[in-house]
Amino acid sequence: MQVTWIFNALALIILTLGTSTCLAQDKYCPQSISVDQKIENAPSGWAASDDHSASSLAALTFFSGPPSEDASLKYDRWTVRNGLAYATWKFEPDSPGGIWLTCRYSSTRVVLTKKLPQNISECTVTYDPKVQVSGSPEIRKIACH
């Protein structure tokens, strides 16, 4: 009886920790999105349908100013440890135009764009190079402060 209680408590703690990581990431880029795509002109003899699969987060880009200005930023530091890769971007707080983030997803051309809060000075993205999403390493975590 006591072993079952301990096991359930540990399972709840692990579930809570896992959920908080996902929620922290969703603050910046949702892990997946659902889209409704339409084909403009199906080729003769073909029928189009929707497979109803969610599109997973595949890539992200930080920009200095709105993404329409094409001023994408390269990470300042890239490190690898314990099988994971970490990219860190450093930003000037209160920079003109602000820092923007775009989130790209698998199996769609839909891109989410968001201006980050003015006080963000650094973001670190954790990648898992062993897992690929649309040809890019899986994004495990996004942490900004």
Describe the protein's topology:
Layout: H1 2-26, E1 32-33, E2 55-64, E3 72-73, E4 77-81, E5 84-90, E6 99-105, E7 111-115, E8 122-133, E9 136-144
Antiparallel strand pairs: 1-2, 2-3, 2-6, 4-5, 5-8, 6-7, 8-9
**H and E order:** HEEEEEEEEE
Extended strand count: 9
Tell me, rounded to a whole number, the average pLDDT.
85
| Count of all domains | 1
Give the structural class.
alpha+beta
- Summarize the biggest pleated sheet: 5 strands, antiparallel
What integer value in Å does the Rg equal?
Answer: 19 Å
Q: Which stretches are low in confidence, meaning pLDDT under 50 for 5 or more residues running?
A: 1-24
Q: What would the principal axes of the Cα set say about the shape?
A: globular
Proportion in helices = 10-25%
Strand content: 35-45%
Intertermini distance: 44 Å
Q: How many separate helices?
A: 1
Can you offer a commentary on this structure?
- This protein is of the alpha+beta class.
- It has one domain (2-30, 54-144).
- Helices cover 17% and strands 41% of the residues.
- It has one helix at 2-26; strands at 32-33, 55-64, 72-73, 77-81, 84-90, 99-105, 111-115, 122-133, 136-144.
- Strands 1, 2, 3, 6 and 7 form a five-stranded antiparallel sheet that branches. The protein has a four-stranded antiparallel sheet with strand order 4-5-8-9.
